[in-house]
Amino acid sequence: MSNEKIVEIRKLSKTIGNKQIIKNLNLDLHKGEIIGFLGPNGSGKTTTIRMMVGLMRPTEGDVLINGKSVRHDFEASIEKVGVIVENPEMYKYMSGYKNLVHFARMHKGVTKARIDEVIEQVGMQNRIKEKVGSYSLGMRQRLGLAQALLNDPEFLILDEPTNGLDPSGIREFRMYLRKVASENNVAIFVSSHLLSEIELLCDRIAIIQNGELIDIKNVNEHQKSRYYIEAKPAEQAKQVLEEIGFSVQPHDRGYLIDTEPEHIPGAVKLLITAGIDLYTIQPHRTTLEDQFLEMTGGGEIAQAHTK
Amino acid sequence: MLKLIQNEWMKLWSKKATWVMAGLLIVLLFASAGITKWIGSTSPAPEADWQEMATMDMVMYQDQLQNPDLGAAQTDFYEQQVAITEYRLANDAAPFETESLQQQVLDSHLMLSLVTLFTVIVGAGIVAAEFSQGTIKMLLTRPVKRWKILTSKYVTTMLFALLFAVITIASTAVAGLIFFGIGDGTFLVWNGSEVVEGSYWAEALKLSVLSLASTWMIGTFAFMLGTVFRSSSLAIGVSIFLMFVGVQVVFLLQRFEIVKYYLFTHTDLTQFYTGFMPVPDITMTMSLIVLTVYFLIFMVISYWTFAKRDVTA
After folding, report:
1. Which of A254-268, B170-184, B281-295 is most confident?
2. Do B138 and A103 lie within an 8 Å CB cutoff?
3. E-strand stretches of chain B
């Protein structure tokens, strides 16, 4: 990952009617990094992405791709971008190959050899001459990825790419995406509400809620070593642990302590000698999901109730 | 741009519906010639020969010329017909029979309303379908400005209309040849100073090109509706409704000045060469200006909505 910026989102706002859907969004993406774009449904993910690729016009602000404005210099800015917005809808009445030829003609310098190369990359050689209407959803996703790769993009934008795929399909798609990312060294911007998905794929995560960017974090930094302890009598256990200097937080039916693994055997011995019954002790990992829900206050659920 | 048109052309002909339309057009044209043949063979031979018919026509033409409401184009037309008919009777030059290749070709422009119908279907759907299929987002996230994409779609619609017009004339000619064969008779025209023999192919081509103005306008109208409302069924419905009702409204508005600015007063450009004009005091130049203004309005609305629209489909 270099520090060279490929995409700069500048003061992006979108107002529809009198509702401000996106509020002053700022974000930089760097070459070669995979960024997750996370938010509950209706938070403005898709609107942001649509503004990035010129499908929607920002009310204010702009998006620069490779330094060129999507608003004012559309053709140049989008030249090296590959896009999948939600499900890649193809012309069902044409073969996969003809679909690719169709999109290839809309870019400069995509040769027949490049089309074949992309087909091979997504492993579709056998079915490419068949009509898209006969493809499974997984096949269509792969064809969607193929069309996004035709112009040898430096930047891929994927909006909910795994929507509607079954677990094996999701895994397969992730595999292809990884392969493609490493083979072509592209920056990827991927939106999703599937947290585990983002966690497995991304270097950085931008979290959006109600049209505002509320956090940007690196995936690896949030893993602190924590342990969960369940013991009885609980009060007494807490006392013992606090006495030896752990910070203790109640969690579930027991407590959480922040500590490194080497301190655990000592703590266990102390608890046992104090005559406390130990039921559970295990490493506690906050998943991204917990953090996400914590940050957005369970946005989806809250919204559903207020409607 | 050529590649974009190539794309649209490929998509158009990858649809079964397009081939069905082409097949239907050819079948209808052959059927129409076949029915003419069948009616001709079952009804008794006409009692009058062509000279008697011509004499009767002559009386009708001269009658018309007495009409004080006649427009300039109509007066020209009837005067020419009188001259031509006089020439026929004097020189024993028979016109084509209805049941001949020549007359079928001359009348082929009457079948171009079928082309209009199919053009409406294609024009209404060519943008709307991209929205309903969801492919519009794949199309608009390419390094191609929106107006270029819309232009390629419009040009494709018009190329389709042109191709179908050619198919119409060619099928009529082939059907005419098969069912009737080449008949006797001569085709006469007034060249400005005297009656001379003319090419019926050139005349057929002239009338067809003039008829295509209506295809062009209604096709453009359907294209606009499809672009603005993104619903091909709505665009097809409204366009076809107007295609039939629009012309009738001319008769309702006949007495008012506003009829001169009404689209359907001008869509039939052949009226200046066939003598039948609901509003007699218009001229070809006027019609061309009105059509151009309507065309520009339709185009501006189409381009403006297509370029500005937020794609949320």
Report:
1. B281-295
2. yes
3. 188-190, 195-197
